[in-house]
Amino acid sequence: MSDSEPRHPEKVNRPDQASAPRPGWIRVRLPGASDGRIALPETRRSVHALGLKTVCEEASCPNLAECWSRRHATFLILGDVCTRACAFCNVKTGLPGAVDATEPARVAEAVATLGLAHAVVTSVDRDDLPDGGAAHFAAVIAAIRARSPDVTVEVLTPDFLKKEGGLERVVAARPDVFNHNLETVPRLYPTIRPGARYFHSLRLLQRAKEIDPATITKSGLMLGLGESREEVLQVMDDLRSAEVDFLTLGQYLQPSPKHAAVIRYWEPQEFDALAASARAKGFVHVAASPMTRSSYHAGADFERIRRVRALTRAAGAR
């Protein structure tokens, strides 16, 4: 295998990598009886009844209880087995099954049943497919729009590495938000995201904006894998050069001992400082906190960006 070919190693943590002790500010909020909007069991039933997967469950998201109690779920399409083995991710690795042609309609039904105003759709990496799953993403977007025309759609896609035309097919389906996470700083890609290429992912985001300037582009980083503040700031500059609108920053939490260790926990005030730096660099919106994840409060964040864009257009028209 050449150096340019992606590698797919096992998720095995080195014995000398012990995670830092978890600090008190890492708290997973559980819904309480006083929360009148609790619908966690109903969300679970709606998703499971339709035979759907969510990244909330498959990736062991710490915000699952909070989001599901408000009928928010991020749909995981194209199966629950990934062709890559990123060191941070809790999704299963292996040989995926066949693509289910009925899935787009079932996702659309779940969106309608849950009464979502903003639907978020992601997938495992499907390096086994000629287009990396791009046509299936487009079919899901179309099915949601046909069933619920007023729902806005956000996609969190793989990198479509070596899948000619994959990105273009997804963007042509006109998602309201195109998200692709860089995940970490370029220095850490060989150990944390070995199947991906930093500059390819960066170019993917830039190309999405070039194809459709109206699309909101979004990316995110996990902190705590050994990156420095200076490296994070450089990634921000790279993303702004690619005209990315929306940045998320969250604390990495080790899913199991076989995954990459948490080198350190960034303090809440450090997230605040990074958010201030990101806003100063020109991001339209920034979500940064220890518990921030790509899809956390995605609908509310989308509405904020839409309002900012409307105000900017109005100011420019004066």
Features:
alpha/beta; TIM Barrel; two-stranded parallel ribbon; 37% helix; 318 residues; disordered N terminus; eight-stranded mixed β-sheet; 11 helices
The CATH class is identified as Alpha Beta
Rounded radius of gyration (Å): 19 Å
Shape: globular
Approximately how much beta-strand content do the residues carry? 5-15%
Model regions low in confidence, pLDDT < 50 over at least 5 residues: 1-9, 31-38
Biggest sheet layout: 8 strands, mixed
How many β-strand runs? 10
Task: Give a description of the structure.
This protein has 318 residues and is α/β, with parallel strands linked by helices. It has one domain: Aldolase class I (TIM Barrel). It has eleven helices and ten strands. It has helices spanning 40-49, 55-58, 64-68, 103-114, 134-147, 166-172, 189-192, 198-211, 229-241, 268-281, 298-317; strands spanning 53-54, 74-77, 81-82, 92-93, 118-123, 152-156, 177-179, 216-223, 246-251, 285-288. The strands form two sheets. It has an eight-stranded mixed β-sheet with strand order 1-2-5-6-7-8-9-10, sandwiched between helices. It has a two-stranded parallel ribbon with strand order 3-4. Strand 8, helix 9 and strand 9 (246-251) form a beta-alpha-beta unit. Helix 9 runs parallel beside helix 10 (268-281). The longest helix has 20 residues, at 298-317. Mean pLDDT is 86; it is low at 1-9 and 31-38.
